Amino acid sequence: MTNKSVQWQQHFIQLGNNNQSFEESAAFTQETINQLFQAADKPYSGVQPATVKAQLQSVDFSQTESLHAVINTVNELIAKNSILVQHPHTIAHLHTPPLIASVLAEHFIAALNQSMDSWDQSSSATFVEQLMIDWLCKTYQLGPRADGVFTSGGTQSNLMGLLLARDWFAFKQSAHNIQQDGLPDYGHKFRIICSNKSHFTVQKSASLMGLGERAVVCVKTNVQGQMDLVDLQLTIDSLKTQGLLPICVVATAGTTDHGAIDELDKIVEIARNEQIWSHIDGAYGGALQLSAKHQQRLKGIESADSVSVDFHKLFYQTISCGALLIKNKANFNTLLHHADYLNREGDELPNLVDKSIATTKRFDALKLFMTLKSVGADTLGEMYDNVIELTLQVAELVKDNRNFELCCDPLLSTVLFRLSDKFQGSLTAAQFNQLHQTLRLQMATSGTAVIAETKVDGKVYLKLTLLNPCLTLNDFDSLFAKIESYAVALTTKEL
């Protein structure tokens, strides 16, 4: 062994050694993070974005330093200027504080560095992922032929669900194998149907699949933000009359802005009757399957051909972590490709690459494993019940506040509201919209609060996404007071 190779060992975890450097650095990192959280009193430092960018760009990578010094640099430049998702007033997006079990699982995942494509790279981890997939299929009652695979989240899960739908339909239509022969000559007639409130990844997936965004046909929604079933049937009939080929209907269990849950059972039934694949985007609301109070809102999910579930949302896992579940595991065969070095034909041991569009894949299933064993599915369900109840109470606070106007009653755990007309004064509608955008941005960059914005019928609304089960109503009293203060200052030109 050369002197250099001995020298390099200090940068790696070594087998058979006590790894004192690793232990000390890990402990120092944990201590640094603890101190950061203990001292934090705002969701963001308030340092202007341009300053943060300039400081990071000044880092000289041609000069190395001790790992402890690097940890200090990361803390000062990055950690202290990060959005702290644990803060009560970080409430903009579907971005949760992670469970301790999930964070600790990341220690194992990173140190073991398993690659979840072949058994001889992941061994026991392969069985853990399949164990968690089997638990999920049973929990969602998808039946004995169901299977699934862990993904990076809703975008990948939706893409895979629609990809399987496309290939299934082509084979059903004319025994055409898209994997081997590409799109059939009638591929330009394929249409994917979703609601006008569905996630944009439906259009994104259609583009990536070679169908184009115009292959996505949006159905109108009712006053509750749910897919209009009459319009769905009319849309299917119209497409077929035009000689077009509806291949999939995408239902949503929890739209991003309103939290609306489509009538899943009826949509799946329509799809089945029309011989169309049914995919449910359950990235947000799919977690309600663990709720004793709200599980019935997902009635019909058990009959869908494919389901997307995100664990880095209401399962409180570290990013990223999701899964695609399918009712008939045979449909994964369209993804199967044998590589002599990887998943050799005749292998007796499972290779998860057989049902994944990713090759190298993280051992994210361990996070769910540790969460179920330490927290439990019932407790997770109780957390959701608490979040939904708190959301209703927050909406009542908005209704009772003459400075605000509620967009609509919450359907899941998002609250949409805007400033009342008293703040508009002589402002035009466009200027009033801009006021909301300025308010949100200034609150975020000053470190006061991180809230979101969206548009409904041309009006900009502020958006609160409640996910943290540890929040109380008092947290929102103080948040609303801050929003009112900024609104007053902005309309009187003080900011």
List the helices and strands and how they pair.
Blueprint: H1 3-8, H2 20-39, H3 49-57, H4 67-78, H5 100-112, H6 119-122, H7 124-139, E1 147-151, H8 154-174, H9 178-181, E2 190-195, H10 201-208, E3 216-219, H11 229-241, E4 245-252, H12 264-273, E5 277-282, E6 306-310, E7 322-326, H13 365-374, H14 377-399, E8 404-406, E9 414-419, H15 429-445, E10 452-456, E11 459-465, H16 473-491
Helix pairs in contact: 2-4, 5-13, 7-13, 8-10, 15-16
Structural account:
The chain is of the alpha/beta class and 495 residues long. The protein folds into 3 domains: 67 residues, PLP-dependent transferases (PLP-dependent transferase-like), CATH 1.20.1650; 268 residues, Aspartate Aminotransferase, domain 2 (3-Layer(aba) Sandwich), CATH 3.40.640.10; 114 residues, Aspartate Aminotransferase, domain 1 (Alpha-Beta Complex), CATH 3.90.1150.10. 41% of the residues lie in helices and 12% in strands. The chain is built from 16 helices and 11 strands. The protein has a 7-stranded mixed beta sheet, sandwiched between helices. Strands 8-9-11-10 form a 4-stranded antiparallel beta sheet. A hairpin with a 7-residue loop joins strand 8 and strand 9. Helix 2 packs parallel to helix 4, helix 7 crosses helix 13 and helix 15 crosses helix 16. The longest helix is centred in the C-terminal third of the chain and has 23 residues. The model has no long low-confidence stretch (mean pLDDT 94).
